[in-house]
Amino acid sequence: MQMVPGRQTKLGRYRGYVAARGALCGVLAAGAGGGTTTEFLPMALLLAGFTAAAVWMFRRWGKQGAAGRQGAPAHQISMPVGDARPANV
Amino acid sequence: MHRISAFLWLAAGGAVLQVVALGTNFYETTGKQAAVKSAWFGIPHASDLILAAAVVAILAVGLTAANRQPVRGRNLGLIVGVIGLLATAQLVYRMTTPPFGGCLQYGCGTNAAQDVNLLAGIWIALAGCVAVTVGGFLHAFTSAAREAGPHPLISAEQRGMSPWLGLSAVGAVAMFVFPFTGFTLYTVSGFLGQEGTAPWGGWLSLPHTSSFVLAIMLIVVGLVIAAGRNRSPLQPAALGATVAILSFAAAARIFYRIIEDPFSTAGGVDTAVGSVQVELAGYLGLAGAVVAVLGGIVHAVQHRESTAEGRRRPPVEQALGT
User: Fold this and answer.
1) By C-alpha distance, which of A61, A18, A53, A14 is closest to B177?
2) Of B8, B21, B189, B190, which cross-links B124 as Cys (Cβ 3.0–4.6 Å)?
3) Residue A78 is nearest to which of B156, B280, B317, comparing CB atoms?
């Protein structure tokens, strides 16, 4: 699949969806587990779901956070008054 | 104080009764193994639920008095009423079906109540639960509750979601899901003279620890969701530190129960037990708690400078005369 700059691929667009549904499937599978041996698969699925969710979070908010730390207050909806003045004041 | 109706005061009084009752004895078992059972060791999960109802009721009164209620007054009353109702239902179930005949879960019938006398403490707890339930629900439909709008505490500085906060939330969910849901936490042999081995989940074998970790999970996930919606009650660094401290408390508790199993002191008395093996779920829960701690620490460190800068700014403004 060829990447187009500035646009997400289908895989990228649905990554969060897949990660969330994967975690949900893990939880459901965990509920169906029995003894310790049969618990291994649901536990592994659940672990994979948590890992996928964590990876998705870093891809979703990682760059945004870096931009915020470099001075772009992307998420400051109620910033202190001092932040609103120009940098040279 | 006009925001607090008489019914909310009733709920607060019920909460006091609940807390008082938790320090008393609930049951007296008769027969061969006659003993007195306290609230805390007799019905631990029900006690935790009663305590949660009391805390919510007292918080509702305190926040309403300070005009800092996080939701509308009507919804606050409904929340108090629902949690009080859950506590009442669980307590009534445990009055009709005490857990001492081996009935740790539901659907055992009422035969277990034959050799058990209910003491005054459990009736005090029931009165408190009913008061919280009735007070909460009736408060929701008063004019005081209708006129009380939401005034949640929201920090002036918001930085939105960060991946480290998200990691903390995932870790917090993992620290509860792995050890305290359907997975086996302990494999036990020779417990109470039984032959063979038996798998034990964390929910039944560690009732107070599971409630404690569940509460911390809910608080951490709630804080992270609030931060993601730019409605965090704490500054970013303080938020990260709070998440880390709460998660550390959960991690410490899980670690303690990995090195010290509960079976030799089950129910608060010395109990015969063979070997106890901690299963993978326990270690994964501990790992989740450690991940939550690390996420909180990294988030706090990343935002420490911005918080410090925010604190330094007012004197500079004063010097500039602005």
Assistant:
1) A53
2) B21
3) B156
Q: Would residue B22 count as lying in a domain?
A: yes
Residue B135's closest CA among B262, B308, B311, B15? Answer: B15
Is the CB of residue A65 less than 8 Å away from at least one CB of chain B?
yes
> CB pairs below 8 Å between A and B: how many?
96
Query: Is B233 near chain A, with CB under 8 Å?
Result: no
**CA B300 to the chain's CA centroid:** 24
- Same domain for B184 and B312, yes or no, is yes
DSSP 8-state assignment for residue B36: E
Cα–Cα distance list, B80 to B69, B91, B136 (Å) = 13, 16, 5
Range of the domain at B274: 163-320
Q: How confident is the model at residue B182, as a pLDDT? A: 87
CATH code assigned at B77: 1.20.140
Q: What does each C-alpha distance from B61 to B4, B19, B74, B280 come to in angstroms?
A: 7, 16, 13, 43
Question: How far A30 CA sits from the closest chain B CA (Å)?
Answer: 7
Tell me how many domains chain B contains.
2
- At residue B60, the pLDDT reads 95
> Are A43 and B183 in contact (CB < 8 Å)?
yes
Burial of B7 (0-12, 13-18, 19+ CB in 10 A): buried
Tell me the pTM. Answer: 0.81
Whether the CB of B284 is below 8 Å from some CB of chain A: the reply is yes
Q: How confident is the model at residue A13 (pLDDT cuts 50, 70, 90)?
A: low
The 10s digit of each residue's pLDDT in B83-116 is 999 999 999 999 988 887 667 767 676 666 667 8
Global ipTM: 0.81
CA distance B159 to B109: 53
Say whether A39 and B183 touch across the interface (CB within 8 A): yes
